[in-house]
Structure formats: structure tokens, C-alpha cells
Structures
1.
Amino acid sequence: MGRTLILHDLRQSDAEQFLPRDSVKYSLFAAAPPVRHCAGCFLCWVKTPGRCVIPDRGADFAAIMTKHDELIFLSRLVFGGLSPDIKAVLDRSIGFVLPFFRKLNGETHHVRRYDKSPAFRYIFYGVDITDKEKETAKKLAAANALNFGSERFSVSFFSSIPESAETLL
Amino acid sequence: MKIAIMDGSPKNKDSASGLIAAALQAELTPAADCAVCHAASHDRDEIMAALASCDALVFVFPLYVDGIPSHLLRLLDEIQNDVATVAPGAAVYCAVNNGFYEAHQNGVAMELMKNFCVRSGLRWGQGLGVGAGGMVQAAPIGRGPLANLGRALSAFAENIRNGVSADNSFVEPNFPKFLYNMIAHMSWRVQARGNGLKIGRLWRFKISEVDEWVQSGKSSDINKGGK
Ligand SMILES: Cc1cc2nc3c(=O)[nH]c(=O)nc-3n(C[C@H](O)[C@H](O)[C@H](O)COP(=O)(O)O)c2cc1C
């Protein structure tokens, strides 16, 4: 298992063509075809702590996150945020943190379940990305990092899949 | 005037979004023909029919990981190219509620909705952020701790009826934050105990313990009835 986990929404053929094959460095998690969406039941907090109860591969992601120093979201930029496929995985992974609240920068956020959280790196691709969308994406990344207890995050934008994947090589 | 309210909570019942949607529908009827649609259970044709020739589209949803729940996001992504043809000139409003007390944490989700408007060629109306969503069930909307929410929803509904655009608005309950947080913490513990979880070790893991936990099957075994 690599030290960096790449959660990506590429089709299999694109993933094979563009993503790094260095499995010492990278682990890949394909968000497509999509996992089922979160049902809002909170059982990942109060019944099977740390794990989603919906039995598909989306249930594994929170545990896989714990094994990595860095989490890369390689995502189509949708309205200034993550794509639906990636978001489906992330919504299913809130068991990575505890339900309990703590105060950070004067706001409520979650207490960590584990000793550490991976750094979050957002690599967005899309055509005609607007400045407003970039602004939204940066705010989203900052908020996500706070809630998942991640101390570092970065955001970058590219106009195509090959360009975005190239930054990984 | 035709208005569609899209309930974007994946829950079918007992959701804060469902209550907010119902309160809005009551405010908007009978001045408008106003239907509520549930994004997670209605199929795409039903949803497109509900949106057709609307003057206003109102999305009511919970904040999920600082954004839009994935099933609703998928719907928005899929309709962005057609929605303006189906409901030309419609204004988009959204009421987002979140689990944390601070309503302003819904701000990013509202930006995402506004960006959806730009992409789809619809007009942006207004966003309403509702903090402490866990309280929406606690009283009738408009009374006691939800007096603020009642007022905010009335003002929001008036803007929708008049089709006007306005600055986003944010509302928190008439109830102190420290108490809300305390009750939330208590409730997590009570629910966990109800499911037979021992408080303590299960809440906090060392990363080295994860494999053992996942492989033991305890983490995913809901069918054995952990209770
Ligand atoms: C997957 C998931 C992610 C959530 N993310 C957030 C969040 O980022 N910030 C927050 O304040 N609340 C968050 N919540 C809490 C919900 O927004 C809150 O419980 C809300 O009141 C649920 O609304 P509903 O009853 O309409 O579904 C999340 C809940 C779930 C299930």
C-alpha cells in the first residue's frame, strides 16, 4: 500500500492511461462506478464506529484513509466542489472522525477518532473553470480539512484529465 | 405562480429538511401552486415534471461534508444543461441546515448552489442557512427555541413569492450553543449505548487497531443485531 491515497473519478480506461502505477508510492481508489449514497443514518457513529453500514466498497474508505499520509482528491470540478462520484465516497466516510464536537478557530468541528489525519490535496480538472468556482473550491477544501482534522491542504486546477494527472508523475 | 420545493435529505421521514420544506410549503400556499419533491426517492421524470415551468426552485437540504449531499449533487449535475429549458427564467433558492450550531458553516454549500445557477443559466435568488439542525424537531417551527427560524422562513418565503434576489440569511435557534452541544454529546452516547457499544475504547482507535477491527467483522456486522 502506498503512502498517498488517490481518490479519483476517472473512467477505468483513463485511470489506466493517466494515473501513476507506482504502487509503493500510491494507492488508488476509484469513485466510479459510483458507490451508494449516504442514507444519513449516523450508524457509522453510533453502531459500527468508523465504518458505514451500507455493504458496498464505499464502506471501506474511512479505514483505508487511516493508512495514508496524504489523500489526493482527483476530481472533476462541479459547481466549485467535488464531483458526485467522489462526494458519494466522502459522505460515506464521516466515521473517520468522531461525532463529538470541539472548538477550532472559534467554530465547532469534529474530534478526531485516530491519532492523525492525512494531508488533503485537491486536484480539480474541468473546462472553463471560473474564478468564482475556484474561490468556492478553496473554501470547501479549508472547511473539509478542519472537519477531518487534517492539518495541511492544497488546491490546484487544471483544464484536462491528462494535465491534472501529470502533476502526480 | 408555480414553485417546486426539492427536499434533498436522503431520509424519508423525521428529517429537518422535511420539516423546513413543509413549513415553506404552508407559507407559499395558496398564493402559489407549490409541491414538495423528494430528490432521493422520486425518479428523474417525476422530478423534471415537478420542475417544469416553475417560477422558483427551492432546494432544501442538509449540509454534508461542507457541501451538497451526493445524491442531490448528482441530480444537479445531470440537470444543469436542461433545467433552464424546462423552467425558463426560474429563480433558485436554497435552505441548508447543518448539525453544528453555527449557521454560517452552510455558506460554502450556498456558493455551490449559486455556481450551479450560473452554469445552468438560472437566476440566483437567496440562500438561507439554518444552524443547529438537530433542533428543528424540538418544537413547532415558530415557537420557543424555533421562533427565530419561524421568522426567517417567513421572510425567505416572501422573497420567493416575490421572486426577488436577496443577500443570504443565517439563523440560529433561541437556545444557547453550549446547551445544544451538551445535548448533542449526550445523545450520541445514549444512541451508542442503545446499540450495545461500550463507551471508551470503541470511540478512539489507534491506527494499528483498525485492521483488527475491520477484519474481525465487528465493524460491519449489523445483521447479527449488535444490540
Ligand atoms: C454524511 C454527513 C455529513 C455531514 N456533514 C456535516 C458538516 O459538514 N457540517 C455540519 O454542520 N453538519 C454536517 N452533518 C450533519 C447534518 O447536516 C445534520 O444532521 C442535519 O440536521 C441533517 O438534516 P436532515 O435531517 O434534513 O437530513 C452531516 C451529516 C451527514 C450524515
Note: Chain A has six helices and seven strands.
2.
Amino acid sequence: MNWLSNFVRPKISAMVGKKEVPDNMWRKCPECGQMIFHRELEENLYVCPHCDHHLRLHMGQRLDLLFDGEGYQKIELPESVSDPLKFRDRKKYTDRLKDARSASGDNDAIIVSHGKIGGVPVVAAILNFDFMGGSMGLAVGEAILSAARLAVLQEAPLIMITASGGARMQEGILSLMQMPRSILAVNKVKEAGLPYITILTDPTSGGVSASFAMRGDIAMAEPGAVICFAGARVIEETIHEKLPEGFQRAEYLLDHGMVDMVVHRRDMRDTLARVLNLLCNPGPPAHVVAIPPSTISAKNGAAKTRNGGNKKNAAPHRRSTDKKDAGKD
Amino acid sequence: MHNFLDFEKPLSKLEAKIEDLRHLSDDGDINIADEVAKLQAKSDKILKQLYSKLTPWQKVQVARHPDRPHFSDYMEGLVEDFTPLAGDRAFAEDRAIIGGLGRFRGRTVMLIGHEKGADTNTRMQHNFGMARPEGYRKAIRLMKMADHFGLPVLTLVDTPGAYPGVGAEERGQAEAIACSIETCLGLKVPLVSAVIGEGGSGGAIALAAANKVLMLENAIYSVISPEGCASILWRSGDQAQDAAEAMKLTAQDLLELGVADVVVPEPVGAAHRFPVPAIAALGDAVEEALGELMELDPAALRRQRHEKFLTMGEAEATS
Ligand SMILES: [Zn+2]
């Protein structure tokens, strides 16, 4: 630890009292419990400098991190039915929505944006965990459809960044129906031959993981992210057993074949950019010397000799059936 | 220095002597330099002699040499921006098979292959290149991904065989291999396979039902290991040498049989001695094969692959 934590922190604590340690000055790592100076945390992309725990990012921070310097444009999302069941629990759903909307400035738990990553134009949709736990209802389903349509229109890959507790209970069965809808949406992208890449962040669960989140052509996850269908608590209460260490974490999913890679937050942009370029700029087939059409029909026709500097070796031997064509063998 | 194989014994003494002399030559004695040169020439000559007439059994040993370059060496030598992709999306990530996207001489390819590992640790990690169903199912997933994005597939084969285990059987080892072969055959993109070491049975063909099958000069490819064959047909594993002879498992044999399309020469002394030129030579052969196949449209690629396997076993009217 540096002098700050040893020296300054107790002083500040003494001055302002426990309760009032301002959020934006110090943050406690939820994993290792260390106090982290906010600026340090920010510089470290909200990854704990002590234990490498990836703290949750707000939606905007995440997008700033992924897009190239020129940034991104949010797109206008279509209206959808706000409260189809006229639902109320302890509170009216419409009131919950109102609160979440005024807190986030967005209409629902998703935004769709487009811009460039690694120079490749992409459409990116991101779930906002701060908005009712990133839950998926009609508006989210509609937005995923919009994102997919935009990707197809722009012939751009679709990047999906997930953080969600699952389906939005307040919309009942209609939120469940967003699972097939969202899969139809991402399949439009796939049918157009465009890459669909998912970035699974903490947490990704329930109806979201069991639909579009798990259907990425390529799936990346952040270290330590909980990615699951049923929550650990539910499982524990059902089977009355202690769950194994690391259960449902990103690394566990990697071992179990569910994601392609676990990528550190500081490497996420570069990794995404590399994959996008491999897929979207596959390179011209003309890199190899073209073979005159007359020799194509003859199997193994063109006998090019490239021996990689090992002059002692002859050109590759070919099947005896082709010796006539190969000539030099 | 090297891990010497049994038949390389004459070399090991000579090279040890050269090594000793080299340390002495620091004293500035000119005669020692001459002596080293003389011994080196002798050693080169023996090496050439030994490797000009390897028996099938000796080739088996060379193909399995622990220092022989493996998947990761070819990947590092031939592919840029390699991005491994993991998992079968059903049960596990099987590290016996590695796959991923990368750039081979300017072009994005899906590179898939068995990795045997290079030391105790990595051998365990990669299960000695013996895949379980998950490995083949990952390969299937990645081949289909390549097909979907129109990217050519390059597979590197180097496995003693599919892993024989209870779990592997429970999860459908045979089904996984069958589907992997079927996926190879159905691809609408070029599929080039290179046997770089051991092409062990079903575990190998799972990745090698290709448009072009390349074999390194000292690679082997067979329906069962010579030891396995000997213990079944000769009732004794000691007869592996005879089995190796009878099985026709060398690259040259397989070229004659029409199973291999190209034999890629290795430097004299084989790839385990000179990995860099061996890797480059394979790269050149792959580039040439890919270049030819890139000219074909999807239907022609499938047809060529189907024809290749359909005509195998037909009475050949060729030399
Ligand atoms: Zn921490």
C-alpha cells in the first residue's frame, strides 16, 4: 500500500466520520475489502489494484472504454408498451420505471449505439444493470431488434454487452417472450453473415443468459463475472449443498466450454478490435499468386517451388498420379 | 543437447565430442577448429545417411520425437494475431485441441489442431494431444464458424489418437468424431490439413477429411498405433516394428496410396533438429494449397473433397 492509505485515509475518516466517507473519494473493494482511492480506481478502469477484482462499470464508462477515440452515437429507440400488465407489487411498476428513468436519463435498461472499434464500424447494444437490474422486458426486446436491424442495414457486426438479472418480472409472461424475440433478432445478424459478439459482464443471468447472451459467435467474459441461469442462492437452497469455489464465475464457464475467452478489462478493447479485424478484414485472396485457369482443372496443377530457404530440399512431393503435371518432382 | 533416438546413437557420441572441442577452442588453438570442422562434416554425413533411409519404425520414432515442433510452434511461426477460441458450449474446454482465428500470410484463417504439449506440465494440460468429445465438438463449432464467415480452415494433425476413457465414451466419443468428419466434408470453404507428427486413427481423421492433406516428410498416419496393431494381430506389442513396416504409415506410403496429396520435405535430420525451416516449409506448402483452393467456388470445394474420398479404394488406373 502507498502512503495515501496509511496516512491520509485515517485522517479523512477522522474528519468526516465513518458514514460520510464520500463515495467518490474512497471505495471499498467488494472482493478483498481494501479501500481504494477513487482516482486510482478510475485510472485502473475500476479494477481493484490489490486483487484484480473487476468492479461493475456504469454503461457509459463501458462504452467509452470500448469505442475508438471518436466515440459513439446513441440511436433513438422505438416506443413500446410501458406497463402491459398494470403491475404493482409494493410499489407501482410505473413508479419504479419513472424512478429508474429519471435516475438514468434513459427510457429503459438498454442503449444502442454505433461507432468504430479498432477502425471497424459496429453496432453495440449494452444493458444497464443500474436500471432495474438490467432486466429484459418489452422495451429491451424491442431495442435488441432495433440493434440487429441497424447492424444488418449497416452491414456491421453486432456487439452485445450484457449485465442483467434476467427477465423483468413486472412484465410477466411478456418478458419471457423476449427470449425468443431476442434470439430472432440476433439471428438476423447471423443470417446476414455478420459477426455477433457478446461481452458478458457481471452479472449475466436468467432469461438474458438463456437467450441472446449465450448465442454469440464469439463470447468474451470479464474475469470473475457471474454468468449463470439459476442464481447460486436458489441452487444452494434447492440442493442444500455448499457450492464449489468459483462456481458460475467466468473462469468456471471457460473451463466448462461456455465462453471463448476471459478477457481482462484493460485488454478488452484490443481483443475486440483484433477479432473484429480478423473477421471483417480477412484479407484479399489475391495475396497468393493467381493460377492460370487452364491449370486449375488439373489437380495440383501449378508447380510453384517455394522452399523456405532450405535449398537442399526439393519441392513438395506430390501424389504419383499427379507427377506428369508437377513436372519437377 | 538433443534427445537422441536409438538409431541416432552414432551421432550422439560425435556431437558430444564436437561440443567438448568447441569449449576448448576458446584457447585459440587453430588445430582444434580444423578438427571440429572435420568432425562436423563427418557428423553431417552420418546424419544424411541415417535420414536418407529411415525405416518406418524409425519414422514412427521421429514423428513422436519430444522436440518435434507441435501445434503451438507452427502457430507462432506461421500465424499472426492468433486468437484462441474455447469450448464446445456444452460440457468443457478440451485443451487437447486448440483452435482459433489468426492471420496466415495476410489472410484470416481458422486454425485448429491437436497440441501434445512440450513439457510435463503442458503435456498434462493438453492431455498429450488426445482429445475427448468436447475437443471434437469445439472443432466442429469452429469449422462451422469459419464456414459461416467464409474463412478457410487449416488443421494441424498431431495425436496418438482420441482419448480412451469412461467419461469420453459416456459423452459420445464416437458420435463426436463422426460429426467432426461430417463437418469437414460439408464445409463450403477450403479445408487444408497437415499431418505434422502423429496421425493417430479416428482422432486424426476427425480433423483431416480435407480438400488437401499435407504430410511432413517424417510424419505418420495410421488406423491404429503400430504397438496396438502388433498386440492385436501379432499378439505381442514387441512386434511393433513389423507392424509399422506392414501398415504403410509413412508419408511416402500414403502419397502412393492417395491418402496424402503432398509430402512436405523436412530438413535433413528432421523437424526436431531444424524446426524453423521445417515450419517455414509447411507454411509454403499450405500457402500453395490454399491459393489453389481459394480459386474454387463453394460447390466446387465440396465436390472436390467428396470426389477425393469417394474415389479412394477404387481400382486406380494410375502409375
Ligand atoms: Zn480487491
Note: The beta strands of chain B are 79-84, 97-104, 107-114, 153-159, 191-200, 212-216, 220-222, 262-264.
